[in-house]
Design goal:
The complex is a heterodimer.
Chain A lengths: L10 H4 L9 E6 L8 H10 L26 E9 H17 L34 E9 L7 H5 L5 E3 L5 E3 L9 H5 L6 E2 L4 E2 L8 E2 L8 E2 L5 H4 L6 H5 L5 E5 H17 L6 E3 L12 E5 L19 H25 L3
Chain B lengths: L25 H4 L14 H7 L18 H25 L3 H24 L19 H27 L9 H32 L4 H5 L4 H20 L6 H23 L3 H4 L5 H23 L4 H29 L4 H16 L8 E2 L2
The chains are: A alpha+beta, B mainly alpha.
């Protein structure tokens, strides 16, 4: 029986698969993302995802995609920041580092459980040599393929399933579009696809595109169809700067830790990891991110919890409520006899 | 956001794209959504000061399920059916034939409205039977499917018996009539047993989401929903049953009113102000205010409903209306709560900060190592 929360070594094995496959995942290193959006394009093309609403300029830097959704499985965020905000990001990052690894407490320079040498920032020269006047944050967001996936937990049809690669995928021929998974996702990733009627600007009338799987829930499959053929996902394959890395989840987490240590040594204390902690509210994510500011700056929730984590407690509350209802009914009949 | 000489040409900032430094406690007391400018760019001096918050262009972080009016209707009639299931079982056990008949007919009517409403709201209604591929404890929707279908089975059988009796056994049942009568007892029991779960599971369904207002309401919403169900079923039965036989319905309705009001206040008391605000303001807030008013009026009406059938009908309808408004209010409050990213971000930051202050630092999704 699967766990509802907490660290879990092998979600695929827990879902009934053997141990033949390693868990796959992304490591998205936003520090080397150039915002080319090739991942968005490659994703759309490979997965035949229809156009998302009308074409429009959104006034949010170079981001005219908006957010992840039924038809957008990779979304590149653009954030423009000035010096104040950069310094603030360095400060919050430094605070995070000082919180240290769990179970070790304040950083003491001791080696970490994973065998990595702990970085001791009290000795390192973390004074940034120069703070730029301006910076552009670019980050390619994607489904997190959570260890404890809210969407998967609450799906009533079994359309969502855990693959042998430890990823979470919708079976489009099973999904009946009830929409429960949409609310179950703490990252706002999965969405029900509408009929996709759009009207491009300057064109009269509405254009009907060919929309596959309308009315069902859609999200990133981590290119399940490519994975089973031994290929890597389209976005990772196309990424020209290797900002999107794909591989065994353990390796991805490992290289994320290495990369952040490297950036900290260079004085970039604003760097932090997102989703690399198996103790977090979703048991760690399959897609790990390296961010250069607080997650909310990128539109990522700062403390996501899989809703199902609290489900046993909710059932208990409901049981008490039902007990009260039964008692009230019984008393009503006893008292109503008068 | 930076401010340079070019800022006067900058478009008005979207709501939510502002930040405040320091000062943790102040913002909790006031509505954070009334701080700052109205988006016309004319209040720039004030907005730097006030909101410690950086969002991604004010865009939503989580998505609400695409549950519209049919789901609101279902939340109401599902509760009505659930509590009517208990009423009919109690009436059958205590030999109150009139109340039993009323409750069973209300129940089958409610199921008859609610089930199609559920199917219509699906993205692919023709696949509604896919709900029955699995039985999944981690999915309140899956449990609800099985609760509703077993309840409906019981309700169909008991209602068929009632209709058959009301029409003087004129239903063309032939040799099946004895079987139908034989099934009546077990069916009534099934309907009674599934009644309370049918009334309560929808609260868990809403609680088990990342929608801030619903999720934060999880500690108390089941109390609200079973109470709302009880007052609706009590009210309907009270309106449709003669005064002499409606005693238990009146009492159940009165108990429901008390539970509903106390439960809602308890629910809100367990929520972050930003999470409970949609229950109090805007359209959902109005719906819930009127729900409470109608519930109080109907509750007072139950005290006098024994004396006059007119009062019984009026207060019964008021109670049913109160329940419907409660359900739509809660449903829409959830939809409202995902629109502003602050309702997601700030409660999350606060709880993270609280854990860190308590020395728990190992469970953050953001790490510096």
């Amino acid at each position: 029986m699967g766990l509802l929360s907490g660290p879990e070594a092998d979600p695929a094995a827990d879902a009934g698969w053997g141990h033949d496959h390693d868990r796959k995942g992304f490591f998205t290193d936003t520090s080397i993302c150039i915002g080319c959006k090739a991942c968005e394009v490659a994703c759309k093309e490979w997965n035949h995802n229809p156009q998302d609403g009308n074409l429009q300029i959104m006034g949010s830097s170079y981001d005219n995609t908006g957010s992840l959704g039924a038809n957008t499985w990779r979304h590149v965020a653009f954030v423009e920041q000035g010096k104040d905000r950069i310094e603030e990001a360095r400060e919050t990052g430094r605070k995070l580092v000082s919180l240290g690894m769990p179970s070790i407490g304040p950083r003491s320079g001791a080696s970490t459980p994973g065998g990595r040498p702990g970085e001791d920032l009290s000795r390192a020269d973390t004074a940034p040599p120069d703070t730029p006047e301006f910076r552009w944050l670019m980050s390619s967001d994607v489904c997190k393929h959570c260890t404890h996936a809210g969407c998967l937990d609450v799906c009533p049809t079994g359309a969502l399933f855990r693959t042998e690669f430890g990823t979470v995928v919708v079976q489009e021929d099973i999904c009946n579009g009830c929409g429960t998974c949409v609310g179950g996702c703490p990252f706002g990733v999965i969405e029900r696809r509408d009929d996709g009627t759009v009207a491009p600007k300057g064109q009269r009338g509405r254009v009907q595109q060919d929309v596959p799987n309308k009315g069902t829930a859609n999200k990133c499959t981590l290119c399940y169809d490519r994975l089973v053929e031994g290929e890597e996902p389209a976005c990772a394959k196309t990424c020209p700067t290797t900002s999107i890395k794909f591989g065994d989840h353990d390796d991805m987490v490992e290289s994320a830790h290495e990369r952040i240590a490297q950036l900290h040594e260079q004085g970039m204390t604003e760097a932090r990891l997102y989703g690399a902690n198996p103790e977090d509210g979703v048991g760690g994510t399959g897609s790990v991110f390296l961010l250069l500011d607080e997650p909310e700056v990128y539109g990522l929730p700062p403390d996501p919890q899989v809703p199902t984590k609290d489900l046993p407690h909710m059932y208990r509350t409901a049981a008490v409520a039902m007990g009260g209802m039964l008692a009230a009914t019984a008393l009503a009949f006893l008292g109503g006899r008068r | 956001m930076t401010h340079s000489s070019y800022d006067e040409y900058r478009q008005p900032e979207p709501e939510g794209g502002r930040r405040k430094r320091g000062g943790g406690g102040k913002r909790r007391r006031r509505s954070p959504l009334d701080g700052g400018a109205g988006g016309d760019g004319s209040h720039e001096m004030a907005m730097v000061e006030d909101v410690e918050f950086e969002s991604y262009y004010g865009r939503p972080v989580v998505k609400a399920p695409p549950w519209e009016t049919p789901i609101g209707i279902y939340l109401f009639v599902g509760g009505l059916a659930g509590a009517s299931g208990l009423l009919q079982a109690g009436a059958a056990l205590s030999g109150n034939a009139e109340l039993r008949r009323t409750a069973r007919l209300v129940a089958i009517g409610a199921v008859g409205v609610g089930t199609p409403a559920l199917v219509i709201d699906l993205g692919r209604p023709e696949r509604f039977l896919h709900m029955m591929r699995v039985f999944k404890v981690s999915s309140p929707m899956s449990l609800g499917t099985w609760i509703l279908s077993s309840y409906a089975t019981g309700a169909g059988m008991t209602a068929a018996n009632e209709v058959d009796r009301m029409t003087g056994e004129r239903l063309p049942l032939g040799p099946l009539r004895p079987l139908l009568r034989l099934a009546e007892g077990p069916s009534a029991a099934l309907q009674g047993v599934m009644g309370a779960p049918l009334a309560a599971y929808t609260a868990v369904l809403l609680g088990d989401t990342a929608v801030p207002t619903w999720n934060a309401a999880r500690h108390g919403l089941p109390y609200v929903f079973v109470s709302s169900a009880s007052l609706a079923a009590g009210g309907m039965a009270m309106a449709l049953t003669s005064r002499r036989n409606a005693g238990p319905a009146r009492l159940l309705a009165a108990a429901g009113v008390v539970g509903d009001i106390v439960g809602m206040h308890y629910t809100k008391s367990r929520m972050h102000p930003l999470e409970s605000e949609p229950l109090e303001e805007g359209t959902p807030g109005k719906l819930l205010t009127w729900a409470e008013r109608l519930a109080v009026a109907g509750g007072i009406g139950t005290l006098f409903a024994r004396r006059s059938r007119t009062i019984a009908v009026a207060s019964g309808l008021a109670l049913a209306g109160a329940s419907a408004l409660t359900r739509f209010g809660v449903l829409h409050a959830g939809h409202e709560s995902v629109k502003d990213p602050r309702r997601v971000m700030i409660p999350q930051k606060d709880r993270l900060e609280k854990r860190r202050a308590a020395g728990i630092t190992g469970d953050s999704i953001t790490t510096g190592w």
